[in-house]
Amino acid sequence: MHITQLNRECLLHLFSFLDKNSRKNLAKTCHKLLEVFQDPLLWSLLNFHSPVELKKDNFVLGPALKHLSICWYSERVKLCNIEDWMKNSFQKDFCKRHENTVSDFLLDVCNRCPNLRSLTLSGCGHVTDDCILQLLKNCPNLKSLKLENCVQITDHTLEAVTLHGASLRTLHVDFCRNVTQAGLQRIREKCPSVMLRAERSATMIPDSKPEKKLMLEKTSRKLVPL
What we know:
Blueprint: H1 8-15, H2 20-27, H3 31-37, E1 45-48, H4 51-54, E2 67-71, H5 89-97, H6 101-112, E3 118-122, H7 129-138, E4 144-148, H8 155-164, E5 170-174, H9 181-190, E6 195-197, H10 210-223
Parallel strand pairs: 1-2, 2-3, 3-4, 4-5, 5-6
């Protein structure tokens, strides 16, 4: 029996065992397999590990998407999470190339994937509070939001959770150094049912210039009791 003689349910099951590139390559062999590749039911889970992957034409965004993960761990991508005042001109130019890559992609998710249940972003240094706000508004079924080392995330995201995260049950803001203890406390008070985790966040020095950091350090020393 040839693979194209299988019914659609069997083909969807077969495709489910393949990664994104393998699915795309198989879809190029005939029109019937291309139709299976384009079926939104096949795309309930998406994982990305580099900026380049977000621009590839090897996946489909649709209402079936429930779980999305974008985790960048390479040394080159980590540049985006370094304070701007510490970057040289070459590093700034490199970061500029994919400054809007994740934000533009997440905007597509807002428009096409209203049934998203879980979102994990790690090392995405250019994701902003406004981007997360739009996701919370457009994906009312979101139950899990995990943010790690996203340096532009601030208390505005935490406030958005209190206003638009009615379905949220899990919130992680680990290593998001620009959230504050006050913002975390507001979440605990207004959303007691949310499982909140903020490892090394509000205790970290915010993204600021050296002179501001020095002022913070001097202030902290003055507050230490003798």
